[in-house]
Write a structure and sequence with these properties.
Elements (H helix, E strand, L loop, with lengths): L1 E7 L7 H4 L13 E3 L6 H13 L5 H4 L9 E6 L1 H4 L3 E5 L4 E14 L3 E9 L6 H10 L10 H4 L6 E5 L8 E3 L15 H8 L5 E5 L7 E6 L1 H9 L1 H6 L1 H7 L12 H11 E2 L7 E5 L3 E6 L5 H8 L1 H28 L6 H18 L9 H13 L2 H53 L3 E3 L5 E3 L1 H27 L1
Parallel strand pairs: 10-13
Antiparallel strand pairs: 1-6, 1-9, 2-3, 3-5, 4-5, 4-7, 5-6, 7-8, 11-12, 12-13, 14-15
Helix pairs in contact: 12-13, 13-14, 13-15, 13-16, 14-16, 16-17
Length: 476
């Protein structure tokens, strides 16, 4: 799974609601992707039926494309995987691994994030060392270090998707184009090319550093017998740690046995250990090992319901990061220019996220509750959401105080004007009603307006001066 953040080109200065609106994306009308709302086969229909019963109904909108313009998610499927042979080819120099691809999907979410998923089948390379190598190098989306381009220790020589139509040069990345001048966090070209075939006007940024998230089930009787008969020894051994944390063979990343045991113990879900099933969850993976006699429905559950849970958690994490980035952008902007409107839009979308995508629980099933809580905890979703809530609340409070201050300033100005205008009105009225009539040399009667206006002007100047002095003194 490749979780990513997307941003619409040319919308950088728009309010957040416009930046992440699925309606503003320029979708390709003719491509090898199709928006899929209803299941197209009996197998898919069975899967959707099972999933909808497994998850709470209020979670469905975050999982399934409703097909309308206001859907929280838009779901796209690659056509070639349904029509012909497609393979995911990993060239590791000394060995080439070719895995069958039976589905490639893209989900775009209304929080400005997305998910590109590859469903792969490995029937040719059952040895643990091969499984570890496939998992390790097959998920790398760009070189983590510039030295990786040369030594290729954790980086494949190339990754290619064979059997796809549409791109003349093929869907391949050999990572040779990466230099120390390359833009940071730039994903492999075949990933970006596929996403742009659905949405032409978006920029893409990865979420889980230089790796895709990995979900993998693996049948191994030797492992199963080991953890059924001596569970503690199996936890202390390297193979299970290497598998769950996707480390290199005989080169695990933790060099302290006590810490290694603590980490793998926390990452292992052991409910069905005596029945020969063991799950492992890390920030990079959701893993499952079982015996060769494992019932098919358990593997189906792992590939469907548990895959949905993992994707939902990744979408939550990516969304939180997307919101946090917008908080930072707004904090840097000129507070006099569209500030309140941008904060209000961000606050509105955040409330929508909390109510419609962020869930503490998604299923009534015990195992579903427990696995979801493990994923939720490993990704620190609760802590991230709590901190984000504080950041956005502080921004919203600041805007509210700023609006109150503006309103108070306006009221103060109106009060000042009224304070000055009322006595002037009284004075003008008084002199207007008390004009003294005079006779000119011919005996004609007239009013001496000039004299009254002179007195009024003097009196008004005195009143204004006194009021201004009084207002300034009261402010101090």
């Amino acid at each position: 799974m490749f979780p990513f953040q997307w941003s619409i080109k040319g919308f950088e200065h728009q309010i957040f609601s416009e930046q992440i609106s699925l309606k503003n994306i320029d979708y390709a009308l003719y491509s090898n992707w199709e928006r899929s709302v209803e299941p197209t086969s009996k197998f898919d229909s069975d899967v959707i039926y099972n999933e909808r019963n497994y998850f709470y109904e209020f979670v469905h909108d975050a999982l399934y494309d409703s097909g309308d313009e206001n859907s929280l998610v838009r779901h796209f499927e690659r056509k070639e995987t349904k029509e012909g042979d497609v393979s995911y080819v990993i060239n590791c120099g000394g060995k080439v691994y070719e895995l069958k691809v039976y589905a490639i999907n893209i989900n775009l979410y209304s929080t400005g994030v997305g998910m590109l998923s590859f469903y792969l089948n490995n029937e040719k390379y059952p040895d643990p060392s091969d499984v570890l190598m496939i998992n390790q190098v097959g998920r790398r989306v760009f070189p983590p270090f510039i030295a990786s381009v040369e030594d290729r220790g954790i980086l494949a020589n190339s990754i290619e998707i064979k059997g796809l139509q549409g791109k003349i040069t093929g869907y391949i990345e050999d990572f040779s184009r990466y230099t120390n001048k390359t833009k940071n966090n730039m994903p492999a070209s075949f990933l970006v090319d596929m996403i742009h075939e659905v949405a032409k006007n978006i920029d893409v940024k990865p979420v889980v550093d230089d790796r895709m998230f990995l979900q993998c089930w693996y049948k191994n009787d030797e492992w199963t017998n080991a953890f059924k008969n001596d569970y503690e020894s199996f936890l202390n051994s390297n193979p299970w740690y290497e598998f769950v944390f996707v480390d290199k063979l005989n080169d695990i990343s933790c060099k302290n046995k006590d810490m290694q045991y603590k980490l793998i113990k926390e990452a292992t879900y052991e409910r069905w250990q005596e029945n020969g099933s063991l799950y492992g969850i890390s920030r990079y993976s959701m893993m499952y090992t079982t015996s060769m006699e494992c019932p098919k429905f358990l593997l189906d559950n792992f590939e469907t319901m548990y895959a949905r849970m993992a994707e939902l958690i990744l979408v939550q994490k990516a969304s939180v990061l997307r919101f946090s980035a917008e908080v930072t952008n707004i904090s840097k902007m000129d507070v006099e220019k569209d500030f309140s409107e941008k904060v209000s839009s961000l606050y509105k979308e955040y409330i929508r996220f909390v109510n419609q995508i962020h869930f503490r629980e998604v299923s009534a099933q015990d195992q579903g509750i427990e696995l979801y809580q493990m994923l939720y905890g490993v990704m620190n979703i609760g802590e991230h959401v709590s901190k984000l809530d504080e950041e956005i609340s502080e921004l919203h409070t600041y805007v509210s105080l700023r609006e109150d201050r503006r309103k108070n300033s306006t009221m103060e100005l109106l009060t000042t004007i009224a304070t000055i205008a009322v006595p002037l009105t009284v004075v003008a009225g008084f002199f207007g009603m008390n004009n003294k009539g005079l006779n000119d040399e011919k005996g004609d009667y007239f009013y001496n307006y000039g004299l009254n206006q002179f007195y009024i002007a003097i009196l008004v100047a005195i009143i204004i001066s006194v009021l201004i002095w009084f207002i300034k003194r009261s402010k101090k």
